[in-house]
């Protein structure tokens, strides 16, 4: 079946036939080693095989994204049924971000203009692939202490992109957004409820919000801890109940963003730009912390989120496709390194074991490795690594 070449962001977002995922192809402990064109193509074949049709990227400072767009173009030429679209991220920083100087959150980095310019050039070069530009990633949330900016900076660049659309310099059906924490979009602390944010909500084509119950199992653990009325349940039942509460936690954050937007008299699509669940952690989320991270819970969260968002026609850019060991290079077992549905070497984690069983990856490889299951596919071995969420009196970290 040939691909519809006129497809737009409006057709893709909220369409369960176009599953979305966050993508980085880095295999090493440094981004100085960029994925090769062939490595990118192998990854695209794997994601396409599992039904992914939309990728989210994060910056255009490095060569990965230009090479990714080239890889997708080549795959489309090689196979008329191959289809993949991109939500192109443009990274936004404040002045002095990532330096030995104190970040100035009231002034934007001089690098931002060049980043936006590069994003525009790629959207112009690949209009058949780039369907969305996201200005900034968690660039407004205050806990991003290294680099966050005020909403007026994001608004400035969103307006700039919208003006380019009006001038015909970008496709009119390209959608523009910013991808940020639910609180940054008005769904949490009222400190974010500013007129600049309200104007930003008016300016974007849709809202892209993040929700992470896994992180909140440490920072806001009330929903995660085993309640007194469930103490007598079996371990399996306690875990399942906790995962249902995690789903409800995300649903409430989603609803809070929608409700804030509607309180302004605005009614636009709201999609999930990022959510995920790590499979390993030696810090806050592991056995000495909230006991959230393992492949079983990660798999349950993936399944629950896909079922809910597909049913409600919410796009969910699940974080993420592959483990990326550069994320926390100083701590090999840090949770940031283990959000992938695949390991670095290409093993399918529990969340997608069923796809291995279906044979969707037959003949495909990552770095020359055929796609097999983690734990050699033995669920009993996997379950041995699963911990029950704690009761409050069991906590070993200072919450």
Automatic annotation (TrEMBL):
Gene3D superfamilies: Glycosidases. Keywords: Carbohydrate metabolism, Cell membrane, Cell wall biogenesis/degradation, Glycoprotein, Hydrolase, Membrane, Polysaccharide degradation. It comes from Hyunsoonleella pacifica. One of its GO terms (cellular component) is plasma membrane. It is found in: Cell membrane. This is Endo-1,3-beta-glucanase btgC. The keyword Methyltransferase does not apply. Its main location: membrane. GO terms for biological process: cell wall organization; polysaccharide catabolic process. Glucanases play a role in cell expansion during growth, in cell-cell fusion during mating, and in spore release during sporulation. This enzyme may be involved in beta-glucan degradation. Active on laminarin and lichenan.
